[in-house]
Amino acid sequence: MARVAVFGTGYVGCVTAACLSRDGHQVIGVDIDAAKVAAINDGRSPVAEPGLDELVARQVASGSLQATDDVARAVADTDLAMIAVGTPSTPDGGVSTEALETVIESIGQSLRSPDKQYSIVLRSTLLPGILEERLAPRLSRAAGRDLGSGLNLYNNPEFLRESSAIRDYNDPPFIIVGTRDGRDATDVLRLYDRIDAERISTDTRTAALVKYACNAFHAVKVSFANEIGALARTLGADGHEVMRLVATDRKLNVSPAYLKPGFAFGGSCLPKDLRALLRHAQQQAIQVQLLAGTLASNEEQLQRAVDLIRGLDCRRIGLVGLSFKAGTDDLRESPQVLLAETLLGKGHDVRIYDPGVSISRLRGRNLAFVDQRLPHLASLLVDAPEELCGHAELLVLATECGHPFDWRKNFSGPLIDLRRDLAVANPGA
């Protein structure tokens, strides 16, 4: 059993406090709102959430849940604090952390005794960097001691939806805890021993961004379905049936497929079919900004790759992979072809290795596309990985090319992996 203080007794905080006490922990809810404190101590939920009134009443009656506005008392009587105060938008769309900082400071001031071992767990939604650069220093100053041994700070984002929060608490997609400097997350994960879900320990920045990525993905799915519905209406199709059938594909559509950050998409299908939908939308005067933005976003990813490559100031570049994906010789709208064209146009000396591409085998539109973009492709292709390494000052990996050659081991210069380095903070590591 853990002794836990939950700061903030709104939707997230009250559900968390009630469920933790239900699962065997001794919990104190902490809030500056006297009405919320009184409601909990009277056995009532301060927020409207199905099943929460009954749960709060049972836990208060059992003595495992109470509430107070006394921060010092709550900290003194517990070993761990969970912070669930709101982080609303600022007027410019940023994250307001005023309440969060106030709570962190008040907890820190109650921890000035070096003998008090304590952990603070952030449930509030916060962008990466806020915990590390704003909250951690404030907590350390308020407590008068460094974070680390005896004073720990974690991020534990919640995935609760209003109107189904208790059900979501009991059956989460996973339980994720972000730790500083690779510290152990066992003490936080133990809070959820009675919850059957995958446990994940990662760094605090990744944990924070997972929450935003999930919500952004949910928003994208809603808008995508609505835009397909709008198109269906003008095309004589049933948008609900279309999306029902789309969702039955668990191999590509509702799956991890295509959800790994990497380079831009290309090929003979995706760009062409997106353009066809967008052209129809224009003819029908329908605004489908998510679909329109997808092509623009893809072009931005290509530009990010160009900027990353040119930022290393190397003239001779070796490109591994030219077709739009490994295992094919299809060069139509391949982002690697567009990348090579752009680099050549900016004066770089480019050589390309792709054993699946043979000039003699290119036909029809495939040949026409590469003739338009890279008319001297034959002079750019090399036959062996060693030849590419011998030419290049900088190596750019775009696809596997179906070849087991160890590029990192056999090339001593800088190397950019477009399948990874556009999505990590330390490219090339």
Q: Can you walk through the features of this model?
A:
This protein is an alpha/beta fold and 429 residues long. It has two domains: 3-203, NAD(P)-binding Rossmann-like Domain (Rossmann fold, 3-Layer(aba) Sandwich); 298-417, NAD(P)-binding Rossmann-like Domain (Rossmann fold). 44% of the residues lie in helices and 13% in strands. The protein has 17 helices and twelve strands. It has helices spanning 11-22, 34-41, 52-62, 71-76, 98-109, 130-143, 165-170, 186-189, 204-235, 239-248, 270-283, 289-310, 335-345, 364-373, 377-380, 385-391, 407-410, and strands at 3-7, 26-30, 65-68, 80-83, 118-122, 151-155, 175-179, 199-203, 316-320, 349-353, 394-397, 415-417. The strands form three sheets. It has a six-stranded parallel beta sheet with strand order 3-2-1-4-5-6, with helices on both faces. A four-stranded parallel beta sheet has the order 10-9-11-12, with helices on both faces. Helix 11 (270-283) crosses helix 12 (289-310) and helix 12 packs across helix 13. The longest helix is centred in the middle third of the chain and has 32 residues, at 204-235. The two termini are 42 Å apart. The mean pLDDT is 95.
